[in-house]
Amino acid sequence: MKYGEQYGDEGLWEGSLYVFDDRMGVKFSDKAQDIGVCIHCGARTSNYENCALASCNDLVLICEDCKQDGAKMYHTALCRQTATTGV
Length: 87
Ligand SMILES: [Zn+2]
Ligand SMILES: [Zn+2]
Prior knowledge:
It is a single chain. By secondary structure, the protein is an alpha+beta fold. It folds into 2 domains: 1-33, no CATH class; 34-87, no CATH class. Helices cover 37% and strands 11% of the residues. The chain has helices at residues 3-7, 10-23, 64-67, 77-85, and strands at residues 36-37, 44-45, 48-50, 59-61. A hairpin with an 8-residue loop joins strand 3 and strand 4. The chain is elongated and about 35 Å long. The mean pLDDT is 77. The chain binds zinc ion (2 copies). One zinc ion binds at residues 51, 53, 56, 58, 74-76, 79. One zinc ion is lined by residues 38, 40-41, 43, 63, 65-66.
């Protein structure tokens, strides 16, 4: 497993990994309550970002990888479209 490398936050992951291993992610422990899923690629993350569209500004889960892609800082295609077309 390379979760530490991939997500860069091993400490945060330690508690939840056991849960996923033992119960296949069906049930979450208290420790794992802040672990969510990236809205773009489905990777597990606890990294919240505000949608890049100011008028939306939704707090959404975006993993560290997707965060590198400016277009993915919009939480939906509609938000991105709104920002680029100005509608
Ligand atoms: Zn992602
Ligand atoms: Zn949005």
